[in-house]
Amino acid sequence: MTSNALAQALRDWRPGTLELTRRVDPWSAEAFADLIGAPPPPPTARAAVASLPPLWHWFTLVGHPAQSEIGADGHPMAGPLLPPIPRRRRMFAGGRLRLDAPIPLGAQLSSRSTVAAVSVKSGRSGERAFVTVRRELAADGATVGVEEQDIVYRCAEEGAVPGQRPSPSTGFPEPAGDWRAELAADPSLLFRFSALTYNAHRIHYDLPYATGVEGYPGLVMHGPLLALLALELPRMHAPERVVRGFDYRLVRPAFAPAQLVSAGGPDGEAAEVAVAAQGAEPSLTGTIFFGTGKSRR
């Protein structure tokens, strides 16, 4: 595309609204817990019914587009929150979460998603469109929180041969902190996470596509998986603390197979955390907020 083509493509875009309501089924929580080798969410002293850990609502608020609506990359070709970019390529870049109340298992969970911001930036790798999607969450009709996701889009040049994206540098020390966890991430784990989130993006399970079409050196680990692993740190090491917010950035891809290392530690009402493939620079960095603390805006 020519210079400023993304801005021109988005100039007349009027994003819509996406609303979903699903019952919070314990099955998906148990399935994800088994996937990462963690215990499922138990009842607490504050509630007789178990509640979802932060961001585990991702397994409930899942759409199911018709197969005829899926594009060559595995993503839906169109939708109210998808920008009209030709030959669209997509990457999850991070987000923010604010929780006001827990989401109980069995509740009717509703979301209302809108596009909160759109911008186009140019750099050495070309033009990128940054889209922020805001999702308002309610359980059994009561507001429980708000999350925002930052998505980066680019346009694949028609007929171009993708250049090989550099492999992650090696020899870096592991993320540090008193809280630490490891997970062996192989292609089968990525495939199962894709199935659990109904995510057909081929960079996560189709090696010839990931390397030959999008130019990655291997299968790409899901950004949401890295965010969830970061939030496992307080759940495992400080279960008495209540997570109220999470700000996180995905700064570089991680590739399978690899040993994922999550680490961090508390500092007052917050905790700095990071997730990295062993020996590589962190792929995710973030701040978890506890108690009455609010996520930074």
Blueprint (SSEs and pairs):
Layout: H1 5-10, E1 18-23, H2 26-36, E2 88-99, E3 108-123, E4 126-139, E5 142-155, E6 179-185, H3 187-196, H4 207-212, E7 219-220, H5 223-237, E8 243-250, E9 255-256, E10 258-267, E11 270-277, E12 284-290
Antiparallel strand pairs: 1-3, 2-5, 2-8, 3-4, 4-5, 6-10, 7-9, 8-12, 10-11, 11-12
Helix pairs in contact: 2-3
Describe the fold and architecture.
This protein is α+β, with helices and mostly antiparallel strands and 297 residues long. The protein has a single domain, classed as Thiol Ester Dehydrase, Chain A, CATH 3.10.129.10. Strand 4 and strand 5 (142-155) form a beta hairpin. The two termini are 33 Å apart. Mean pLDDT is 91; it is low at 293-297. It has helices at residues 5-10, 26-36, 187-196, 207-212, 223-237; strands at residues 18-23, 88-99, 108-123, 126-139, 142-155, 179-185, 219-220, 243-250, 255-256, 258-267, 270-277, 284-290. Helix content is 16%, strand content 36%. The strands form 2 sheets. It has a 10-stranded antiparallel beta sheet with strand order 1-3-4-5-2-8-12-11-10-6.
Features:
single chain, 297 residues, alpha+beta, Thiol Ester Dehydrase, Chain A, two-stranded antiparallel ribbon
Which fold name is given in CATH as the topology? Thiol Ester Dehydrase, Chain A
Low-confidence stretches: 293-297
Q: Report strand %.
A: 35-45%
What percent of the residues sit in helical stretches (DSSP H or I)?
Answer: 10-25%
Q: Name the CATH homologous superfamily.
A: Hotdog Thioesterase
Q: Output mean pLDDT.
A: 91
Count of separate structural domains = 1
Note the gap between the termini.
33 Å
- Strand line-up in the sheet with most strands: 1-3-4-5-2-8-12-11-10-6
Instruction: Please report the total strand number as a whole number.
Output: 12
CATH class: Alpha Beta
Q: How does the helix and strand content classify structurally?
A: alpha+beta
User: Mind describing the biggest β-sheet?
Assistant: 10 strands, antiparallel
With helices defined by DSSP (H or I, 4 residues minimum), what is the helix count? 5
From the coordinates shown, what is the CATH architecture? Roll
Radius of gyration: 19 Å
Order of helices and strands: HEHEEEEEHHEHEEEEE
Shape: globular
Oligomer: single chain
